[in-house]
């Protein structure tokens, strides 16, 4: 074949949902929109049935901030004509855990997918696709699902799919249950499959949910042929790339030796690879316009995690430093009031996507979530980020958890790991700690806990931060 991705603590109490006035503003929708609505008790409010938006979630792979140059059409649509969240984070900077948080609205310590090897730990009854399917949505998945997922197995609660085994050219896909090779650049194949799914809205009156997850710009960051030699803007690093004294960092950072040149090379390939994603997003917008569905489609654009371009000597993710967990995060829904090109400075994360989708669709989940709806006035003063080391082999990034606000970050590393079944094991002893003043040291060059005295720790507020981090990890 040929064819051319709330933290329970810190949340303000008594916050109100926007569903009430959004439903009122869209009350003139036709009764036909309720056809096929599930009557699952406690899931869908009848008053919201006629105003349910379509939902498009685009998830890229390993895309850090500072990549707007390659996704300008995406930015012009979803950010400039929607909402740009300036303080957005992945709660676990690793592919499968972060995607499981997107699907479930839960932290990794709750959904159970701590590492890439155990996708089966995700409770499928907790996922947004389960709720939307039961509420009468037409659902589709196009691209990468969860790392470690058997390509022969169908993704639960999707009506249509083209599940990609990660690759860039002539990929292997599970298309609605049939495993096959489809020739062509995979981002373009997924674009075309998604467009075909959207086209069905011309005759199928059900609201739809499309989850689109290209492999780009994950390594080896292979660009499409037409972009293979595209000249990208020059970049000479940032302070953390030029860090010379890492004696205050944990041993794995001290032993990291990636250079500016290494970071520049990865950045160049990532930007070139993202150009095809940008083309696909533009095609989605054009299709929604042609279908007359742009106004009432809720769109998310977000990566699964960020990436370091030589910061602290690393070209990688999985670490607590800001380039690994800070994200571009754009949302648009003109019919729901998210179409005016605004900036939202709240601290948000992957755990907020599912609650927002369910709120917009008028669905009340009967499984717990850690996030809050971005359609509400809810906010938090910090967010938890966390990561688990897989197994006990020497080397690699240790298990860690972190308190992150707009002004400071506190990190603890632990004697813990994810075992063969993905469960947490180990003593839990704290092995190393870091604290950064993000206002005066955004590059995280100076660990203020290194050789700090008890009095200095008290002055920094470390005991309270440690207690909060413990509470967050249990929430």
UniProtKB/TrEMBL annotation:
Domain of life: Bacteria
InterPro entries: Alkaline_phosphatase_core_sf, Sulfatase_N, TAT_signal, TAT_signal_bac_arc
CDD domains from the UniProt entry: G6S (cd16147)
Cited PROSITE patterns: TAT (PS51318)
Pfam families the UniProt entry points to: Sulfatase
Domain Sulfatase N-terminal: residue ranges: 53-363
The protein's name in its UniProt record: Tat (Twin-arginine translocation) pathway signal sequence
